[in-house]
Every structure is written in C-alpha cells, then in structure tokens.
Amino acid sequence: MAKVWIPSLLRGLTGGLSEVQADGATVRQVIEDLERRYPGIAARLIEAGQDRLKPNLTLVVDGVNSKQGLRHPVGETSEIHFVPAMSGGGRAEGGWDVDATAQLA
Predict the structure, then answer these.
(1) Domain 2-102 falls in which CATH fold?
(2) In the predicted model, what is the mean pLDDT of the chain?
(3) Is the pLDDT score of 66 beyond 50?
(4) Disulfide: which of 21, 35, 48, 61 matches 1 by Cβ 3.0-4.6 Å?
C-alpha cells in the first residue's frame, strides 16, 4: 500500500491522521480508495466535473513533482503528497512576501 501524506486542512476527514495507507496502481485509484474510507476527500482533491486534480494542488510522488496527475503510476512503497499551493500577501521591506497562506478548498 502507498503512503499518503494528508495536508493539515484535510485531516478533519481522516480523523486527524497526517498519513494514511491506500491501495491503487495510479493516483486516481489511490484517491478512490481514500474516498471509500474517508468520504469527502475526493471532492477536496479533484476538480468538480473535471478529470484532474484541483489547480491549487501540487502532486509529489516519490519525491518527484508529478506532471501526470491522476494517471501517475503508484507502487506498493510509493509516498504521495498533495501539496497546497501558496499564495502571497504584501511585500515587506526588501521585497520578501510576508503573508503567504496555504489554500486547499
């Protein structure tokens, strides 16, 4: 089973778990397995009416930023991360963003 790291904004769906195990040969199948055990999680990961991950998520499988999305192959020992995109706020003196916040829903 693949190890899936759960972003903090989704942990309410997993009973507070930060990592879970899931079956599947692709990311799509892993999400389907997660949905069976944690209803509602698929809607938070997959764009409604589309066959792709939400645009504010980055998918990382085995340490590699995936461009294959739901089709990305997954192995028994794979680690999957759904990384929320960061959005910035204002700029502090020196040009650094100071109010970056994660978004997921």
Answers:
(1) Ubiquitin-like (UB roll) (3.10.20)
(2) 86
(3) yes
(4) 21
